[in-house]
């Protein structure tokens, strides 16, 4: 089981399926966000589970897969622990198909 602490987008509950997007500002520390929808490329608006999404205003974004929220941080309510799922997990596949239609 692989887990990762990420910043929460908003309104996400424990147990919910989320998509992890890594945000890399050019002159600041990178961080990851949990989102309820997959990241989209900045040119074609294609939903992606993994890979480069694009650069906008010197900020690069990469899709890093999907997972389930396991718990919230006790110290910082805006951080959540995500259990990363396999790309072929049924819930992940279904969510990606929903975004494509």
Describe the structure.
- It contains 1 helix and 8 strands.
- The chain has 101 residues and is mainly β.
- It has one domain.
- The strands form 2 sheets. It has a 5-stranded mixed beta barrel. Strands 4-5 form a two-stranded antiparallel sheet.
**Strand/helix succession:** EEEEEEEEH
Tally of distinct domains: 1
Strand order in the largest sheet: 1-3-2-7-8
| Strand segment count | 8
Our count of helices gives 1
Based on CA inertia axes, which overall geometry fits?
A: globular
Proportion of residues in extended strands: over 45%
List unreliable stretches of 5+ residues.
none
Rounded average pLDDT: 91
> If you compute it from the alpha carbons, what radius of gyration comes out, rounded to the nearest whole angstrom?
13 Å
Largest pleated sheet: 5 strands, mixed, barrel
Could you give the distance between the termini?
A: 30 Å
Structural class: mainly beta
The share of residues in helices is 10-25%
């Amino acid at each position: 089981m692989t887990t990762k602490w990420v910043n929460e987008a908003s309104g996400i509950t424990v147990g919910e399926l989320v998509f992890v997007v890594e945000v890399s500002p050019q002159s600041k520390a990178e961080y990851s966000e949990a989102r309820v929808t997959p990241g989209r490329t900045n040119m074609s608006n294609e939903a992606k589970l993994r890979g480069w999404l694009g650069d906008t205003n010197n900020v690069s974004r990469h899709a890093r897969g999907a997972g389930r929220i396991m718990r919230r941080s006790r110290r910082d309510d805006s951080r959540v622990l995500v259990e990363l799922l396999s790309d072929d997990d049924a819930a992940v596949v279904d969510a990606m198909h929903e975004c494509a239609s």
